[in-house]
Each structure stands twice: as structure tokens, then as C-alpha cells.
Amino acid sequence: MPSSSHCAVCYQPTSYWCSRCQEAWYCSADHLQSDWPRHRKTCRPPAATPTTTSHTFTMTPTPNSMVSVTAIHFPANEDKPRLVTVNCMPPGDLSSGPCPTPLVQPWFPDGRYSSLTLTQGLNQEPLRFPLQVWYDGDALSRGSPVNRSVYRITSGQAVRAWSGPVVVLKFSGSRRQGYSEASLNDLPALSAYFLGFK
To answer: Half-sphere exposure of 177 toward its Cβ, with a 13 Å CA cutoff?
Structure first.
């Protein structure tokens, strides 16, 4: 997969894609949401043809089958991001793809969340370990306050007002077949992302 392409809505160059199918490219969460009625008809995880199109997971795996990874949580009402443990459900078979499924519901209690994959960091350099950013794209329109921890690491200069919680997982390589431990060393790339994301 190329490290960048063009937004499906405005055709601007971008390095963010739909994290579910990894085929559609978008320059912003707003464009992903506005294109969703069209895109949902063809959005399928790689090597899969499931009938569901949401990021809601209904399987209840046993605790012994879980994989845990460290992620970065940007709490909406705190000034600093912090490291958290995210449980991931291992893939049951190849139709669900080779990557474990992160269970991010505890950070999004209303069940509304989307994700984008960040493939470029500072100065548009490719990230060896892409970052998957989970967020609630509608939180601001529902009256949620601006995310204080994102606001603080960007010194209030972000183009987009981030609202609601944000959880970031780190892929274990460019093929995105698993996750590795995220750390606060990933903050510079995330800060650049938050500053430039429209």
C-alpha cells in the first residue's frame, strides 16, 4: 500500500485511510463521515466480506484469549495524556484479518468512535510503526468540551477542535498485522498529526 494518496472527497493529498478497509483515503474525519453513506457499501476489512459495517464488537472473548498492549489515552478532561492498557481480541480466523481487534469501548462509553491510521510523522516522514487513532468525530457537535490533553500538547494551535476521548495504538510494523507498545515517545508524531489534521 502506498504511504499516501488523495482524499476521496476533495482529492487533496493525504496519508490517512479508513482503518477498516484500508482502501479509502481521507484528509479529515469530516470527509470520512460525509463519504460514509457511499463508502459503507464497499467497506470491507482486508480478505473479508462480513455483513456488519460498524466498529461495534459483540463477541465476548475469554480473558485468557486476550492480548494486551500499551496505548496512549488523551482524556478529554485532563491536561496530560497517559499510558493505558488496551485488551485486544486475537483474530479468530483469516477472514477477520491478521491483526487483533482492539477493544476500545471502555474509553467510548456511548459506543461512538472511529479510527484513522497515521502513516507519516514529523516532516511527512513515513512512520516505521503506524499509529491508529481512535476518536469520537461527533463529540463536539454533541456538546462535549474540547479535549484538554490534545489542546495542551498542541498549545491550542490545532486546526481542528478535538473533543471527547482519544486513544492511540501503535502497529508493530508497516503491514499492520499486530500491535506493539505505544509510549510517550510517540507524542511528537501525534502532536504534528493533531496540529495538521483538519
So the answer is: 4
**Category of 22 on φ-ψ map: left (φ > 0), alpha (ψ -120 to 50) or beta:** left
Q: Among 155, 184, 151, which residue's Cα sits nearest to residue 170?
A: 184
Q: For the chain, first and last CA: distance in Å?
A: 23
Name 124's Cβ contacts closer than 8 Å, sequence gap at least 6: 15
Percent of the chain predicted with pLDDT > 90 = 26
- 98, amino acid identity: P
Q: How many residues does the chain have?
A: 198
Nearest to 192 by CA among 113, 114, 119, 86: 119
pTM for the full model?
0.66
Helix extents (H) in the chain: 29-39, 148-153, 187-196
Distance (Å, rounded) from C-alpha 151 to C-alpha 162? 8
Q: To 5 degrees, how large is the angle CA 182–CA 71–CA 103?
A: 135
pLDDT digit string, tens, across residues 130-189: 999 999 988 888 888 899 999 999 999 988 888 899 999 999 877 777 899 999 998 888
Residue appearing with cell numbers 482529492: 11
Q: Which of 164, 109, 159, 154 is nearest to 133 (CA)?
A: 164
Contact criterion met (CB below 8 Å) for 15 and 3: yes
DSSP helix/strand/coil, 196? helix
Q: Is the distance from CB of 26 to CB of 18 less than 8 angstroms?
A: yes
